[in-house]
Specification:
The protein is an alpha/beta fold and about 290 residues long. It has a single domain, classed as Rossmann fold, CATH 3.40.50.1820. The protein contains 11 helices and 8 strands. It starts with 8 loop residues before the first strand and ends with a helix. The mean pLDDT is about 95.
């Protein structure tokens, strides 16, 4: 499925273990986006126009979390492996002082990036994300076990063909307050429906998810002294504000910003507000 034209030009880069397809728009300081499970670069489609107009180079990859188009059969897709893939992406493009913006599962992976490969990161924006014990949060804790069952991933992704299921808590009902456009849902779900190799990548990631990864990262996060913005949804049902406050207490240089009228996918529910916060946060740090 085609991605939104608002994301910019389609590019690909060959990394040591994978080929990553990404979209690029704008010039200036680099923003690299990290989405979560069963979504892709389209998550950021409402934000890249404003951010590129404000003077940022927006890079929105499709990370191999089940909604990507290019299979990565040789890649290590355990959460630390995906974090290393992001690090390899930053290295390959020789990016410096990168602003990493992450959501949902991508936030957990970004925390691993922060503690294991922080060199190219300038600052981080974490929106509601898996953290500490919540990787995955209820009601998604069943997914790693299900992914180990033969044929279960195929059944899972095929069941989501029924649009009536999309507003259920086990689908998109607790991550967005408002329905996502059908063509974007198709962009998120069609790759794993159509391709055995993509389902294989998805299963490999799911079976590696465990909160030991986020708990281990949390022990190291106090050493990450670069600026972090925690842009959190006050009504989030999966990652409550208490989690954001715990992250703020753990990170030495964190700022917490509350966002109203949104669930987990702030880039879907409140993209303009999130873009404004990113611009203000980035400019304040440059000025400092």
């Amino acid at each position: 499925m085609a991605r939104s034209e608002a994301l910019g030009q389609v590019r690909e880069i060959n990394l040591p273990s994978a080929t990553v397809r990404y979209r690029e728009r704008g010039q200036g300081p680099a923003i690299v986006f990290v989405h979560g499970l069963l979504v892709n670069a389209d998550l950021w489609r409402h934000m890249t126009p404003a951010l590129s107009a404000a003077g940022f180079r927006c890079l929105a990859p499709d990370w191999p979390l089940g909604s990507h188009e290019v299979p990565v059969p040789r890649a290590d897709l355990n959460p630390p492996g995906v974090a290393n893939l992001i690090g390899d992406f930053l290295d390959a493009l020789d990016l410096h002082d990168v602003i990493v913006v992450a959501n949902d599962t991508g936030g957990a992976i970004t925390q691993l990036l922060m503690v294991h490969r922080p060199r190219r990161i300038g600052r981080v924006v974490l929106t509601p994300s898996d953290s500490f014990e919540r990787f995955f949060p209820p009601p998604f804790t069943f997914l790693p076990g299900v992914a180990r069952m033969p044929g279960a991933v195929w059944l899972l992704v095929q069941s989501l063909r029924l649009r009536a299921l999309h507003r259920l808590p086990i689908a998109f009902g607790w991550v967005t307050k408002r329905p996502i456009e059908p063509e974007v849902i198709d962009s998120y779900l069609e790759p794993s429906r159509r391709a055995t190799a993509i389902r294989g990548d998805l299963a490999r990631f799911l079976t590696g998810v465990h909160n030991r990864h986020t708990l281990a990262a949390a022990r190291e996060l106090p050493r990450f002294t670069k600026p972090v913005l925690l842009a959190w949804a006050t009504e989030d049902r999966l990652f409550p504000m208490a989690l954001a406050r715990l992250l703020a207490a753990t990170l030495p240089n964190a700022t917490l910003a509350a966002i109203e009228d949104s669930y987990t996918f702030i880039p879907e529910d409140q993209p303009a507000q999130l873009a404004r916060l990113i611009i203000e946060f980035s400019r304040a740090e440059v000025a400092a």
